[in-house]
Amino acid sequence: MSLWSRYRGVALLGLVVASGGCEAITGSQDGRTRIMLSQAVSPGPSNVRAPSGGGAPEFSVIPTSEPSASSWNRHGGGAVLALVDDFAVTITAVQALPVTFIDAPHHDGDWETLTFGAPVDVNLLSLPTDPAGLEIVNGDLLPGAYVRLRFLVSEANLTLLAPLTLGGRTYPANEEISISLPHPWVSVPGAFFTVDDVEGAVIHVVFDPASSLGQITVGPGGSLRLTPVFHGRGHGGDDDDDDDDDDDD
Hints:
3 helices; five-stranded mixed beta sheet; mainly beta; single chain
């Protein structure tokens, strides 16, 4: 398929928002691009027990050795999620990759930056589950079709409801715990959209709590490591089958 054919396909995708892509609806004010963030509904915790004598729940997420990534993703996400009170991140910048680079290797200088006034602090676990989401960024992005989206996360912190023992270390409750990100740029798979030169765009992105916390590990020096998992929300009235991870990286 020629580059022009693919360009037309992606441009149309941004306008009609085909299923599985990132919803991008024109109609923003003053030609600005808005990013609406919501969270996926997570499964209930699998390892929470009520103590025999009553009182607060006991959380039994206490692996004695480092679990495999696949094991955590299948079983650990909901259990660890039960321990977490807040998962706060600071988003310092947002970038999008123009469709021009869909068939070619791209570099950092090829990304367009969505400008906004100041870093945005978000508690990801307090986001609405409603598809409309919460506006986290409203800024300027050059008109055109885009095939990648990524967030620059400069800081991430967890606060636990109860102590978590992982990899032989115990992390305390009710204290802010700094999270080490493997890479500061966090990609948003499935983000295909078009920014209109007059009306801008509204882009819907979903945060996945269980998948994010399901890949938590202990890094060098005992730091907790994980990458927040986001994806574009597909468009459609009753279409709930848009949670596929179409990772573009």
